[in-house]
Amino acid sequence: DAGITQSPRHKVTETGTPVTLRCHQTENHRYMYWYRQDPGHGLRLIHYSYGVKDTDKGEVSDGYSVSRSKTEDFLLTLESATSSQTSVYFCAIRGGLAVPGSYEQYFGPGTRLTVT
Amino acid sequence: DAKTTQPNSMESNEEEPVHLPCNHSTISGTDYIHWYRQLPSQGPEYVIHGLTSNVNNRMASLAIAEDRKSSTLILHRATLRDAAVYYCILRPNTGNQFYFGTGTSLTVIP
After folding, report:
1. CB-facing half-sphere around the CA of B46: CA atoms within 13 A
2. Which end of chain A is more exposed for a tag (fewer CB within 10 A), N or C?
3. Closest CA to B98 of A82, A116, A59
4. A40 CB within 8 Å of a chain B CB
């Protein structure tokens, strides 16, 4: 358990509404990630952060923004949700200290988002 | 970014060894090979990683071909709790990103 929580765990929202998902960690890790998981696509990286206020895009960043004002929190925002953003969203942190060089990622429990 | 190819699904009998293959013919010299698995309704978890030499840990073994164009994750005695999707991932030495792909869904038959 790497002390990662996600909120909310489930959310149903309507097309066009803004949605913010929160990832919270308790172990002061520098790197944090947001992925989405859809059938047939596996996990795909949306955005990641390498420090407070330092973020970068992943392979499916369109329609998403992120913010990191504190080390412990990484927020994912859908400015105007669409049905194509219905997915399971996973947050992860990068550890790597337990196994040198592993860049081991620890994942949160996921948030199931449905956009109707 | 270099990609990996894995079979969509595999089956194994309980308590027998399982060999999960992964092809990565475009791997570069500094790419690390990582394996993660995802149990039902959970996030992925780290299994093992390596660069050139075979690796063993408490969960599994990783066998890397001499030319590094393929690798095999070995579960020595499959249990029902090993039923999961297994992902083979290449991570550049200087990269911060993981590209998971669709993985291999392993079914363990009692």
Report:
1. 26
2. N
3. A59
4. yes
**Which residues have a Cβ under 8 Å from the Cβ of A54 and sit 6 or more positions away?**
A68
pLDDT for A27-41, tens place per residue? Answer: 889 999 999 999 888
Task: Supply angle C-alpha B41, A47, B104, rounded to 5.
Answer: 40
**Residue entry with tokens 């990996």:** B4
What pairing do the DSSP bridges indicate for beta strands B104-109 and B9-13? parallel
> Which DSSP state fits B16?
S
Closest CA to A45 of A73, A5, A87, A79: A87
Q: How many CB atoms lie within 10 A of CB B110?
A: 7
Q: Do B100 and A108 touch (CB under 8 A)?
A: no
Given CA atoms A69, A54, B99, A116 in this order, what sign does their dihedral have?
Answer: positive
At residue A1, the pLDDT reads: 56
CA-nearest of B51, B106, B50, B100 to B75 is B106
Position A98 confidence tier, pLDDT thresholds 50, 70, 90 = low
H helix runs in A1-116, sequence order: none
Subunit contact B44:A59, Cβ cutoff 8 A: no
Q: End-to-end distance of chain B based on CA atoms, in angstroms?
A: 39
Q: Which residues of B touch A31 (CB under 8 A)?
A: 96
Residue B3 · residue B99 · CB < 8 Å: yes
